[in-house]
């Protein structure tokens, strides 16, 4: 009898414990659900707030900057160091008065102008509140190449393309692109030995002979011979550079140490002036007993300059 009562009491206690555990579990679950609901509401509120902040910021930015008439483009100032028309450069830049100065992509304006084969470099800047300033550096050819052009009625004409100091091909200048009258008549030397398939406007010629010829022309501009002679033709071949002047003198250079060879040319040139002689041929690629032929048939050898090697 006592055992039966004890079992009944144990079952009642077990049910009470189970009920208590369930109640605690349900309370914990309810607390977690309330916390999750609060977190969800907080996240939703933050999202809505961020969205409103973003839209509000964009609206405020547009009102203050991109739609503000104060920053409306009114002047496009273009400066160039060459002959290109300022109006043409503005058209190539693709900007018009009335555009928003802050909305302009300056890198795109710069790229658009640098695609023009006559242009070597571009600098673009905003001048607040309403001005865009563009500085253009034009390509300056050092030499020309002649490209044959078949004529419709038969025969061949030659078109002259310029080659600047970087080896970039510059097409003939259309007079309509020039701002200050027609371009001057070309007095640049003719560069021979260039593959005609390589001559394309805006393309950089990287052949070794072309690089050597352009390097010689740059060295000539810095040398004591600058302004004393006019160069008519340049031909690179077989490890030497042959130069023909306007008075038909033929000077041969080695492909290295142009500065020293040009200085030696100046010394021989002045010696000819003192003796009233003109150079007909001169081989500066030779280091010892430089052969020179004076106009009239006389030939002699010039002693080598101190420190010169056998080949220039």
Structure explained in plain terms:
With 312 residues, this protein is of the alpha+beta class. The chain has three domains: 1-67; 70-138, Roll (Ubiquitin-like (UB roll)), CATH 3.10.20.310; 142-302, 3-Layer(aba) Sandwich (Rossmann fold), CATH 3.40.50.11690. It is 37% helix and 25% strand. It has five helices and 13 strands. The strands form three sheets. Strands 7-8-9-10-11-12-13 form a seven-stranded mixed beta sheet, covered by helices on one side. The longest helix is centred in the N-terminal third of the chain and has 65 residues, at 2-66. It starts with a helix and ends in a 10-residue tail after the last strand.
Task: Set out the fold topology.
Blueprint: H1 2-66, E1 75-80, H2 86-93, H3 106-114, E2 119-127, E3 131-138, E4 141-150, E5 156-164, E6 169-170, E7 190-192, H4 208-222, E8 231-237, E9 240-245, E10 250-254, H5 258-274, E11 279-283, E12 290-294, E13 299-302
Parallel strand pairs: 1-3, 7-8, 10-11
Antiparallel strand pairs: 2-3, 4-5, 5-6, 8-9, 9-10, 11-12, 12-13
Question: Quick summary of this structure?
Answer:
The protein is α+β, with helices and mostly antiparallel strands and 312 residues long. It is 37% helix and 25% strand.
